[in-house]
Specification:
Blueprint lengths: L6 E6 L2 E6 L5 H14 L1 H4 L2 E8 L5 H13 L3 E8 L4 E4 L12 H4 L3 E3 L9 E3 L3 E3 L8 E4 L3 E3 L2 E2 L2 E4 L8 E4 L1 E2 L4 E3 L2 E2 L3 E2 L15 E6 L2 E6 L10
Parallel strand pairs: 2-3, 3-4, 6-8, 7-9, 8-10, 9-12, 10-13, 11-14, 12-15, 17-19
Antiparallel strand pairs: 1-2, 4-5, 13-18, 15-16, 18-19
């Protein structure tokens, strides 16, 4: 089989499905991915999209390597990585963070929404909710557990609707102060950290959570959320 056949780009809604040959040596597979996306550079142009891998089970390290092959040989930027076999979704900006945010304790019986939540289509769940898009302005999301948004929150989110104070709301960006955890609602405050250098930090996912009856927000990589559900 030619190395040109080691991978194949297929379209899917709002993203691409990259078929990977299950038997190809990984180095040759990466070479094939590099060539394929270099040849398709003008076709895709500059775009940020989610990607699904199919045909082959790959490790997280292999997944990172393939994503780097794509981004180095095209203007494509991978935002979400979807594992077809395990039904897991990982935001590439979260890959270096704790896997706790995608662990069974959070996603067990969770409702997974593969689109943005729009006004007039309010979302409710007796467990946690994983939203692969945004929470649009004037939209409402309520969950007995936590709410994990892979995009932006512009609408209303209420986590811990049955009184679970350990619940949280996470998103890549918050453009709304209509966030509620259990019975606590109102403005949330960012935990300030001392910085040795004045440097603009890259956009990274944050979470709103309840601590000492106060709503706080901080990056997911920090430790205040450790152990929450």
């Amino acid at each position: 089989m030619s190395d040109n056949d080691y991978c194949m780009i297929k379209s899917m809604k709002d993203g691409i499905n990259l078929y990977l040959d299950p038997d190809a040596p990984f180095v040759e597979l990466c070479t094939s991915v590099c060539r394929k996306f270099a040849e398709s550079r003008d076709f895709f142009g500059e775009i940020a999209i989610p990607i699904m891998f199919s045909g082959r089970v790959i490790s997280e390290e292999e997944m990172k390597g393939i994503c780097e092959c794509i981004e180095l040989n095209s203007m494509v930027r991978i935002t979400l990585v979807i594992d077809e076999d395990l039904n897991l979704v990982k935001d590439r900006r979260m890959l270096e963070l704790s896997d706790r945010f995608f662990s069974e304790s959070i996603l067990e019986n969770a409702k997974i929404v593969k689109d943005s939540v729009k006004p007039g289509r309010d979302l409710h769940s007796d467990s946690s909710i994983l939203i692969l898009g945004d929470v649009r302005e004037n939209a409402l999301v309520e969950a007995a557990g936590s709410i994990i948004v892979m995009g932006e929150v512009k609408g209303s989110c209420h986590a811990g609707t049955k009184g679970e104070k350990e619940a949280f709301v996470s998103a890549l960006c918050f453009d709304s102060d209509d966030i509620q955890i259990a019975e606590k609602k109102g403005a949330f405050h960012e935990i300030q950290k001392k910085k040795l250098f004045s440097k603009e930090e890259p956009l990274q996912p944050k979470a709103v959570f309840l601590l000492d009856n106060e709503l706080l927000i901080e990056p997911l990589k920090n430790k205040a959320l450790s152990g929450r559900r």
